[in-house]
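Reopening closed ticket. The problem is back. First fold of the pair:
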Amino acid sequence: MAAPASAQSEGELRITEGVESSSGATALRESASKLGNGGKAKAGSRSLGDPLFPQVGNGGYDALKYSIALDYDPAANSFAEGTRTRMRARATQNLSSFSLDFQDTLTVSRVEVAGRKADFKQVNARPDFSDNPVVTQPMKLVVDTKGFIRKGRKFKTEVFYSGDPEPITDADESIEGWIPACSTELTCDGSFVVNEPIGAQSWFPNNNYATDKAKFKTAITVPSTHVALGPGELKRKRTNGNFVTWVWKEDDPTATFLTSATVGLFDYVESEMTEGSTGETLDIYTAIDSAGTPPTKAAVQTTFDLIPEQTNYLSEKLGAYPFDSTGGVADWAPNVGYALENQTKPHYDGNTTGPFASDTTQLHELAHQWLGDSVSPRTWPDIWHSEGWATFLELYWDNDVNGSGYSTADFFDDVYAVPEEEWTIAPAVLDGDPANLFAGFPVYERSAATLEGYRQILGSDRRFFRFAEKLVDRFGYSTISTPQFIRQAKQHSRLEGADLRRLERYFRQWLYGETKPTLTPDDFE
């Protein structure tokens, strides 16, 4: 995500097979009679224990693939009957029940597990999220399996639902998830779907946590006048009278907060580029809000024309681009207030004059494809790692390519000159308050300065970017924690003895300290 302004149906998806290779009630009876693997069946956990968001994430299974079929009316901002999500998963324990993250603003009509109707209920997640009445309370869809799912077995769950999706209001009162795309209060043409941190549960049931990445197939049926955009590559468009189903497929592991299902009236273009480090061809998908004026749309197109150049610049620094396509969506939804690194298609919300995307913000969001999307934060306090790298690379590119005259070393000096009272929120802790998730100074500026300081300590751009490439290579398509980052940085430094201990203190002060650090690169030879 770029720093906020204040800081700068397709087909029938019903499941007929049963657990693994058997089918129907026979397979369920067999499973129930063989629950020796993992002991007695019990309910999967309704939390994965995040320090900021213990209300999200679910235990007892590993999601492998989601197949989402949305039948969407953009004029009414409504999902029709027949909208459904299928999750293919592997049980990590014997399950008597399990949960999915899903808001009750959408009405669930039926849930099937292994092709068999299952009992379900929608309940508030625990603990309560906020005392602020405008903030959304996360919810759970709890599914009763009656003990039929054994540890280690694959199973499929399908949820049928309909209704009017609503945005999620975060602890800082920003909005996310399924947001109506409105250039003004009365002029809306579809959806602007951005899900960080928990917005995905506003429009499809899922295990809403980055440690459970999965593959995605997203089929979105809309009027033929509209464009529908999902993660990954466009596999086909199917026309049925006045409606079109857009089918997108993302085979690389994807965190739920990086998915999309944006719908609108767009100037939509498909093109290609050559990835410089591999020679492979990448598809490029771009969409610019059609309601923009010719000058505003031309300005966005100029930015989008930089995608190949910027992608290859980053591949030189970070290693091969991690996905099979790239692109950008420039909508006109100024009530959102931020851009987001949706996997393969960063989203830009525009401003009051129309769709907008600057070259520096685009570099920031493209950098996230490596560090944020492929390498995601393991817990939400680890978000400093994603935003620190993207902010550093945005500044580095602007100086290196645009000749801004403002180096990352200048940036470090400016950050370190910030008064003592601004240093009370530690990037890797965030005061334990989800309202600080996108706080400008600790999450973006202090974090980027931490990385710049490490670059100076290493004494070489080549060594620094080799470190970044190693992180992407080791933690790609997965997650990274702050302790893992520090451990890798210490190993890569080649420092020993007192110098290595000093580097440990440097990271502790800059990432965990609630006072201004005393250690800077000048303290290292």
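Second fold of the pair, where the issue appears:
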Amino acid sequence: MHSSLPVRTNLLTIAWLALLFLALALVVALAPVHLQNIATDWQITAAAPALPDAVSYSVFINLMLALRYLALAVFLGASGLIVLHQPRNRAGWLAAFAFLFMPMVFNLTGYTESWPYPPPWDQLLGILYGLAQLLGIAGLVLLIYIFPDGSFRPRRSAWFAGGLLVLLLGFSIAGRFIPDGGGFTWAGIMILLLLLVTGGLVSQVARYRRAPAMERRSSRGFVIALFLLLAGTVASILLSVDNQPLPTLVFLFLDLLLFCLLPLSVAYALLRYGLWTGEPTPSRRAVSYYLTGWATLLVVGLTALFLAGGQGSGAAAQPVGELAWDKPPIPLIVDTDLSMDDHLALLFLLQHPGVDIRAITVSGTGEVHCEPGVRNMLDILEMLGQPEIPVACGREAPLSGEHAFPDSWREGADTLYGVELPAGTRQPYPGSAVELIQSVLAEAPEPVTLLTLGPLTNPGEALEAHPELATEIERILIMGGAVGAPGNVGPSTPEIDNQVAEWNIYADPHSANLVLRSGAPVALVPLDATNFVPVSMAFLNRLEGNRTTPAAQLAYDLMAARRDVVLSGTASFWDILTAAILLDGSLASYKIGGIVVEEAESPLSGQTLLDENGPRASYAVWADRMRFEDHFLQALQR
């Protein structure tokens, strides 16, 4: 009945120990990310409104963390139990190896779109984590098809499973390398996984019906667990597709239980019936301890959820921090190129009580063209019932050079990515952006802050024509540059040979130097900091559940319209982080140095360089993702 192993048991044990070390290392490396991000996990935030009023959001989060790590312990415990009993069958060793990495397939240890570690560790961990997930998927699939005797039955099921595994690998690779293919590949992966599990269940049922009585007894629990896992997964997808709070909350707990049934059923068969060893446990105590231990802790956890709260009444429905601002509003000019991220930053600022926006100037050298950009901005201001803020545009060519954003990007910004606005009646400022900047600075009774979210053409031209304006500026806060981080021009536009520049600086390097050398206090929020606040589906889902104002609804519509960008994992909250830092500098940490921009046309054009002889400026090097996202959401809901 049992097939012999072609390699020695002690070598397999050594291999298992090595993979156990890898799994534990990945769990430890993921832990800080998991602990930080679980509060914004889309399932957690979607389920929060269904919690009882007496249960605080923090209690709920801590419980889910505890249960996930408990489930991890169940998988690792089952794996160790199999190795301890030295199975005599390849299916037993496969189960021991597969259980090490299945928790990562089910995201029990958390997940991350960007590792918060310096190069090359971030890339190395990303590769190892991807490999671990592939091993977990392959191990799960093979175990489903060859349990319990180590062979495919019927044999043609091997071709079915192998073909689907190859397709699954192809979709996984496509998701990383095909632009804008995230949603398609994710759907393909889910369909293939369901087909694989369904085929495995059919194979197991056919095997079970023909197996001897002893084998049926030992595999019965596994077959039942497999059926429940498949049924639960399908039900979870169907009933939670709209992120309804109660179904999502139910399946958060149910999925954990269903995931753990596989290792629990194998452990039971091993201890009770001597599966793969021929040595059943005479006493049922070990079986009872193993099976009831996790169930007891689950019951205790659920009891804690509903009885230990009491300090968080209503918190579950609003899982974001409080927005407080007790200082006088900051007088502000916003210079923007009105990409999606710029619009989100402006919605944040328009809703925030801490700013007094005196003017909005549009950079025609950025993503949007002047006429549609100004019209969109005026219509948004009118739709949101904002005061009559003057809006003007500047020139559409840089002060020097011919750098330009891709036409496809500009077309999207011009049309607001397909989001329709009610036609407004407000009219633009009659002069240019430079004239508007000069007018506001001259008329303001106090220094005004200049926030730039696009290329620096408008402020560069204004400060070149009127150097005295620098004394009227409180400070210039720039979203731009890449000081110690790679640029984003070449990676986002392969036809441009430039790996060091950031787009806002690259579009007009000469204007950037004019601003840096103007004498006004300058601070930059470069890619060094914005890389810590990636745009994610978790945040989009969280925003979807917190659309209580027209501004929040518009922010969601804009992000949903660019879902392809969100799924790609290549975008960050560049401009929104800069706007948030304007109001709360503690969201980031900083360095100070001399900064210059490379103007010469070359693959280094637009590079932001540290130069001890250059003009001094501060630049952000890190950002607090969780607090930033809370600030953003809370402002939108105001």
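Update: turned out to be a display glitch only; the data is intact. The mean pLDDT is 84. Residues 497 and 603 are 6 Å apart (CA to CA). Please close again.
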